[in-house]
Amino acid sequence: MALRSAAAAAVAAPRGLRRLFSTASTSPFIPPPTSAAAQAREQPEPSTNLFVSGLSKRTTTEKLQEAFSQFGEVVHARVVTDRVSGYSKGFGFVKYATLEDAAQGIQGMDGKFLDGWVIFAEYARPRPPLGQPGNNMAPPYGRQ
DNA sequence: TCTGAGCGA
Predict the structure, then answer these.
(1) What pLDDT band is residue A10 in, cutting at 50, 70 and 90?
(2) Nearest nucleotide to A92, CA against C1' atoms
(3) Which of A96, A99, A86 is nearest to A46 (CA)?
(4) For the domain A1-11+48-126, what is the CATH code?
(5) What is the CA A122 to C1' B7 distance in angstroms?
(6) For site-directed labelling of A63, which of A6, A81, A95, A118 has its Cα 20 to 30 A away?
(7) What is the mean pLDDT of residues A71-90?
(8) Is the separation of the CB atoms in A68 and A74 below 8 Å?
(9) What is the mean pLDDT of chain A?
């Protein structure tokens, strides 16, 4: 029981900022999120790719896929690990077969415990193209 | 074997 309370508290603030604006409904000044940037802030576009963060350093790809397969058909899953160290970076990606599976995967695994850590699942951001083939693998991605 | 709040080979 105590664990669920901790999970609820953790899911309420994965990064310290999640729904602070939603609780400020008593404020007379509420900026209407009609901007595309505002939607991209908390309204990520639906995608089969999910970004999972908060993973334990010991969480592996198979563990990630196994956990997310309970809520949908996972076609691919990967835990990002450091190339030099080989250790997990604490986050990974899960790709579902359909968008609905991805949505259920998020709502099913977001704020849940995995390897003793509260993980967070959300739609992954669209990354830029890999560039031209034949070039060095590891193009300087433009963050955000 | 580790780090922690992070978007990948």
Answers:
(1) low
(2) B8
(3) A99
(4) 3.30.70.330
(5) 11
(6) A6
(7) 93
(8) yes
(9) 76
